[in-house]
Write a structure and sequence with these properties.
By secondary structure, this protein is an all-alpha fold. The protein has one domain (3-189). The chain is built from 7 helices and no strands. α2 packs antiparallel against α3, α3 packs parallel to α5 and α5 runs antiparallel to α6 (138-155). The protein is globular and about 55 Å long. The termini are far apart.
Length: 192
């Protein structure tokens, strides 16, 4: 395991733990983690994952600004939820992204596992965007991404990252529970 893998792993764990607590510090921690992770997965020829890390870099800068603005206006990072129509729309976008990205990686690159990698990438993009907008549903997507990522990294011999995604899975379940509690509290405090 390279030093970059270890540092990315530690920063990644801190990032998800901070997100579960709705801490704005999740974003600078994430930026360091994804920069290092991008280098590692590119060297492993997981090109979808490498491109995904570039997206995460930009998305974390966006999320950081969005959460800071929300925190300044509301005093806290408030949780929101999608309605049924929004959930269906996001699911459709994930599937379309998966098919398009997987097809491109399969056809035009020597990607190791293009369809598997692309499905994880599409789900991760949607989850990151939902997190930046403070939607609780981001955690359901992160759970699915983590479940799919563990065996992918194990197959590629990246045992530390497979272990990391097991930890992410536990943290995502914790994040979902924490955000559900915050959402219930929001509804209890809403005027009747």
């Amino acid at each position: 395991m390279s030093p970059a893998e270890w540092i990315a792993t530690l920063l990644g764990i801190a990032c998800v733990a901070l997100a579960a607590q709705r801490s704005i510090w999740t974003f600078p921690t994430a930026i360091g983690s994804v920069a290092l992770l991008g280098v590692v997965v590119f060297e492993a020829r997981l090109y979808s994952d490498a491109l995904l890390q570039l997206f995460f870099l930009a998305a974390n800068v966006h999320g950081w600004r969005h959460w800071r603005r929300a925190q300044a206006q509301q005093g806290a990072v408030a949780v929101r939820t999608l309605d049924a129509r929004g959930r269906i729309a996001w699911a459709g976008v994930v599937v379309l992204g998966w098919v398009a990205w997987g097809g491109a990686m399969h056809r035009w690159t020597d990607a190791a596992l293009p369809w598997w990698d692309a499905g994880i990438a599409a789900g991760s993009i949607a989850a990151q965007l939902l997190m930046a907008r403070r939607y609780l549903e981001n955690w359901w997507l992160w759970i699915a991404v983590d479940v799919a990522s563990v065996p992918l990294y194990a197959v590629k011999g990246l045992e530390l990252f497979a272990g990391l995604y097991l930890i992410y899975l536990v943290l995502a379940v914790w994040g979902l529970a924490s955000w559900c509690r915050a959402d219930r509290a929001r509804w209890r405090m809403a005027p009747a």
